[in-house]
Amino acid sequence: MSDATALDPPGREPARGSALRSLYRWSSQRSFAVSYAVALLAVGLATGVVAGPARGIRLLFGTGYESVIERGHWWSPLTSVFFVDNGGELLLALAGAVVLLGFAERLMGTRRTVIAFLVTSILGAAIGLGAQYLGVAGGEMWSRGVVELWAIDPFTPMFGSAMAASYFVGPLWRRRIRVLGLSTVLVLVLYSGQPSDLYRLLAAVVGLGVGWLWRPSLRVASWRRSSDHETRTLLAAIVGMVAVGPVVTIFCGARFGLLAPLGLLLTQDVPSAGEVIDRCRLDDITRQCVQELSLERIGGAGPVLVSLLPLLTLVVAAFGLARGRRFAAWLAITINVGLAILAAWYYGLLPIFGQAYVWQWQSGRYFEVTLILAVSVLVPLAVAVVILGNLRHFPVASRTGMRRRFLLVTAGSLAALAAFYLGIGWLLRDHFRPAVTLLDLLADVPERFIPVGFLRLERVSFLPTDPLSTALYDGVGAAFWIVVFVGAIVCLRSASVGQTADAPSRLRSLLSEHGGGSLGCMTTWAGNSLWFTSSGRTAIAYRVVNGIAITTSEPVGPRSEAVASVAFFARMCDDNGWVPVFYSVHENWQDVFVLMGWPSVQVGEETLLRPNRWSTTGKKWQDIRSSINRADRAGVRAEWTSYRSLSFAAAAQIAEISEQWVQEKELPELGFTLGGLDELRDPVVRLMIAVDAEDRVHAVTSWLPTYRDGEIVGWTLDFMRRRPDSINGVMEFLIAQTAERMRERPEIEFLSLSVAPLAPSSGPRQGGIATGLLEYLGRTLEPVYGFRSLLAFKSKFQPEYAPVFMAFPDSVALPEIGLALAKAYLPSLSMREVVTLVRGLGQ
């Protein structure tokens, strides 16, 4: 029967009472946040979950210009934060109360959170109302346009409190909270532009001021990512805002923001037949007119994709910017310049229909609308210019030829689809109304690839009349943007981070001089990438899995460069958009990561033998002595050799033994820090094999050297395989014989039986999500690979235990790190083998 607790997620206790106590403890630390969520739920249920509060309740408790200034409802800035518009907003508000307010309360305490909640609610609305009052008095269009709107918004104090709490976290989370929080409220102000959006933005700013007053003393010894990373993060947030903002315009009820026109360009509103669009000129524009400008074009999947995919491509570019990709920067520049040009064309800032255009600045009534339309053009253009001016912050190039290939494929697809539209369209010319000529089709080609919203001022020359012509009319543009979208993803995933041809030999020279620890030889294995400091005296071996750069043990180099090598490697990873993880580092490196402010967690224990003190006398060595005697009686001897010195028959037997072991597991051989047959072939690796009188190989172990000043000072056990029918205790015999041989060599300081990966410490358990995640991963693989059993086997030799650790800069990446480690150890795990692994857990 399997252990039921092995199936529990990390940190979960099977006792129900314990779960209830944990829930009580969690809620007691967030009493105000929970109370506010309960109040929101109660008010929402009482006032109507579906339609929201009735008009009378909104007028009494909602806030806004008319509510406070004209009716004197001075209490409304505070009462308005307890109501929501509908059921969907209620669910978001409940989640926000638990996450945002709970986060603030956990960091600042209940008293400060309550103060921040009240201050940001009241001041955010009060400052916004003051600005509206001045705007109405001065005849400003936005203030007058929203004078009758009543705001009910629980998110105003949530964002304000979260901004205040940002002072109580480390630099990484502080930057994330502020960038994401301020980007969110700015998007809503610029694209939606309702009074509640303005109050929310002002509450966030007030929250930053409140938090500044309460800020704790500055923390020291904390690693900060490079300024390049911060610049990339901000630019990615801005590009993401430009991409997501139009969606806000499309779905929000009112569109008053400065950039609302840019969002309206990407909608596909189908107008009524009697709508007249020529009345809307730049010198005589009303807000309603701007929103109603549209074109009689039929909808469908094609136009939707042509309108949506440019935005999705911009979102992809934003992700690439955050990871430092140069290609993403040029992609964002191109799309934003295109948006600016098309917006300028649509809004009449460029001549339309070939007619001369005359600015009518003397018309003060519509000056503000003209300015808004100009901003809609200038914002994407400004974004492109800013990215262009910061290209140096995006150093990661795509693999050789990828960008050229993308351009060729894009241009080729555009030309091929345009030719296809012309050719098939000419064959189907009678399927359009009115019938088209080749010149009509040629003039219409550009419009097939532009979002429908940008063409609303263009008169319709012809329309398709049947499914075949409709598919051609709508499909060529969609096909083109699919090619662009997929090609952008492929190109962004092809980052080029290479190494010089002499890197392996340079690494071996450093290993010979400095050793690199007992696991240093593993840095030479295939699959590792190599990075060197600028001095060339320190090397770090790593492999990138799903954006996580996992090192193979610690840096190889002089101790004097320890801190610098870790810091500069972390910066290199940061430049490439990777999360650096130092895996299987020894305890003597802990002070380096403590100095940098990185958390660490124990991932296993290395077992060490001292050959100069080796002895098998005493009762606790009975198993080892029995194994040696059993081998002697069976005529099995131990041979210290290398792979190149093996006979062909012996090498074939070792391959056969390894293959049998893998087949028994029904899962692939582990990799990463566990070597296989390929690693045996390294000339510096030594083998201790068990051979009988008939030269039949019973078992094999491999040993990796550790150097200092060119001399071998230790050996580390790696590869262990035995025949299923070999004598009992053959592995104990081989390890004991290796220790006996090394005892005769006084220069050998240690024999390492290596690390049992993902095996928990035999000492007191560490807490935290990192430990829970690694223990869960170890439990998952234990039924098949037996990490704990391996650790128990090594304990027979009465070794010294040396913990090894994993250090990482940011706990938020732990789920990704866990998955990356699993994939690093099992890179070829198939779906069938996953099923086998899961089935093995229940046995």
Automatic annotation (TrEMBL):
Stored Pfam families: LPG_synthase_C (PF09924)
Cellular localisation: Cell membrane
Top-level taxon of origin: Bacteria
GO molecular function, one term: aminoacyltransferase activity
Keyword DNA damage: no
GO BP field: phospholipid homeostasis
Residues in Phosphatidylglycerol lysyltransferase C-terminal domain copies: 509-808
GO CC list: plasma membrane
Membrane topology term: Multi-pass membrane protein
Keywords from the UniProt entry: Cell membrane, Membrane, Transmembrane, Transmembrane helix
Protein name: DUF2156 domain-containing protein
Lineage, top ranks: Bacteria, Bacillati, Actinomycetota, Actinomycetes, Micrococcales
